[in-house]
Amino acid sequence: MAKFDLQEVKRQIVESQAWQSIFRHGYEDTPRNRILMVSGNIWLHLHPSKVQRHATRLRFTWCMGGITFLLFLVTVITGIYLMFYYRPTAEYAYADMKYLEFDMPFGMLMRNMHRWAAHGMVIAVWLHMFRVFMTGSYKPPREFNWVVGVILLVLTLLLSFTGYLLPWDQLSIWAVTVGSNMARATPLLGHEGPFHEVLGVNPIYDARAFLFGGSEIGPHTLLRFYILHCIFFPLLASLFMAVHFWRIRRDGISGPL
Amino acid sequence: MADPTGGNVPSMKMQAAGGGAAARSAPKPAPAAGGKRIEVPIKKAGSGIEDKLHTWPFLVRSEFLMSVAVIVILAVWSLTINAPLEGPANTTRTPNPSKAPWYFLGLQEMLVFFDPWYAGVVLPSFVIVGLMLIPYLDINPKGNGYYTFRERKYEILTFLLGFQVLWVSFIIIGTFFRGPGWNWFWPGQVWDPHLVESLTNVDLPYLFGFRDYTASALFGLSCIVAYFVVGYVLFYMWVRARPANDPWSSFPGGGKELLEHWGPVRFGITGFLFLAMIGVLVKMALRHALNIKYIMVTPWINI
Ligand code: HEM
Fold it and tell me: Which of A40, A105, A118, B258 could be bridged to B251 by S-S, CB 3.0 to 4.6 A?
């Protein structure tokens, strides 16, 4: 019986055509390989192959941009799980939440992770903005990336806010009511806002009604927020993140000099 | 195997997987690293400034460790603390207080001081637009890409006022100090839903003896105009008075040179945003000290 040689098995696998068609270079720690590791991988390729020394330091970036992105990815993944069991209608939404919590394997965990990651993302994006301000990283040539960042901040808040309604419990509808009621006070466009007569808006046809899908918070609002939360804002945020990351890649991380 | 790269431990581990041959071409250790930091700088021949590291492994490694840490914390958090779920939605039962999600509580707190059209719509728009404009209004070339306070004192102080003092503390107030009727309750104090704080609010023109509708409206309007005019003048004088040859300023000519570079448009917008921000504080002070509800009352808008 031939002796079992692990090294030989490994060699055969690594040198097979299938393996080499997937992984193009080995794992040796050579300068060439270090660069290939990054440039040959679509995900890592978001980075340049070399970075300034200070960019790798926690005390410079606080890692907050990256953490924001990571938490966004967590909400995407857990969110997909939640979408399997949640129906955005007034009859089912709340019952589905209960079902998810008590009957679905890992349902409660997924819901918790989704919610806490969303809160964490708001905090992380806020701290990220703080650090970018404190390092003056919005100064030329990165002015526009700061603007993109502010858009991402707003989108993060909107994502969180639209998601808040979906459990369809007392907490969610009243929090969203308080938040969205402001829309009826929009100047010109809200029926209680200043100068609303100019455009002749009324309670069933104004900025808030547009948001709610009716004059009151109700089933239409739920569907509307669901679509905004699960499709529209995530797509928009992804687009702006792509721009944000592309710009960082082009301009490099900011630094002294 | 002897470790030829000094303190370069992690990359040696990787080499173990790839075979010892890699050690030959591994980059030379940096003498300055002194075994304390493990990264090896890649210096381009000839240029002394370039101080770059390979993304793999140095940056990717920190990112990976950070991701693991975040996921672990999040998972433990989620295993121990459940997301809230109250009773089913009922549009006929309004809880008291109804609070917006915590990140909007700053705006809800503003409702104490301003009408909804301003607190909920116009003011947040100023905040968003103002934030977006920061890079275009701030022309100080110093402090780009590193931490410094001295070279950008005014920018940083302004930002901290808006970011910390106003935004963050309002969120804290809204979350922990507001109870039924949006009345002030100390943490731990029992929420009394029947508490009615009698506030005898008065409008500023009334306080000054104006009883006629048009006259009070005009008086209120002039107060606001005066606030901005005086504000702009003071702001201008203050900027103009910045001394020359401040070692931390990029403009050796002092305030005069700064204004030349800044230009009227940037000055105007900065002044407006700054005064609008301070205006929030002024209105709060008026409300708390004198129970002033509105400064200007007109048939269309009240401020
Ligand atoms: C969804 C939200 C966001 C994500 C995922 C994100 C992600 C990132 C990442 C990964 C970086 C690399 C450096 C670092 O981690 O600090 C970065 C840099 C940057 N971000 Fe963001 N960001 C977001 C929101 C914002 C906001 C709200 C602002 C500002 C208002 C902003 C402005 C910037 C700027 C100017 C840089 C370049 C910093 C430099 O070169 O030092 N970003 N962002």
Answer: B258
Give B300 to chain A, closest Cα distance, Å.
5
Q: Does the CB of B55 have a partner CB in chain A at under 8 Å?
A: yes
Which pLDDT does position B234 carry in this prediction? Answer: 96
The secondary structure element, H or E, covering residue A238 is helix A233-251
Q: Domains, chain A, ranges and CATH?
A: 59-251 (1.20.810.10)
Domain region containing B282: 98-290
Mean pLDDT, residues A209-219: 84
**A53, A131, A233, A248: which to mutate for ligand 1, most atoms within 8 A of CB?**
A248
Residue B237 lies in a domain: yes
Strands B52-54, A50-52: pairing kind: antiparallel
Residue B109 lies in a domain: yes
Does residue A211's CB lie within 6 angstroms of at least one atom of ligand 1?
Answer: no
More confident residue, A61 or A92: A92
Predicted local distance difference test score (pLDDT) of residue A257 = 60
ipTM associated with this complex? 0.88
pLDDT at position A217: 86
In a domain, B9, yes or no: no
Cβ of B77 within 8 Å of Cβ of A116? The answer is yes
Q: Which helix (H) or strand (E) holds B236?
A: helix B213-240
Could you tell me the pLDDT band of residue B29, with boundaries at 50, 70 and 90?
A: very low
What mean pLDDT is reported for chain B?
Answer: 81
CB of A152 sitting under 6 A from ligand 1: yes
Which of B51, B79, B91 lies at the smallest CB-CB distance from A53? Answer: B51
* Residue among B40, B45, B44 at smallest CA distance from B25: B40
Residue B209 at interface with chain A, using a CB cutoff of 8 Å = no
The answer to whether B90 contacts A115, with C-beta atoms less than 8 Å apart, is: no
Percent of chain B with pLDDT over 90: 34
Q: Cβ distance B193 to B96 under 8 Å? A: yes
Q: What is the pLDDT of residues B95-106, one digit of tens each?
A: 888 888 899 998
With respect to residue B103, please indicate whether it lies within any of the assigned structural domains. yes
Q: Measured between CB atoms, does A254 come within 8 Å of chain B?
A: yes
Region of B245 (left: φ > 0; alpha: ψ -120 to 50; beta: rest) is left
Q: Is the CB of A75 under 6 A from ligand 1?
A: no
Phi, psi (degrees; rounded to nearest 5) at B302 = -120, 140
Q: What percent of chain A has pLDDT over 70?
A: 99
- Cβ–Cβ < 8 Å for B244, B253: yes
- Residue whose tokens read 């995407």: A76
When CB atoms are compared, the residue of A29, A44, A138 closest to B22 is A29
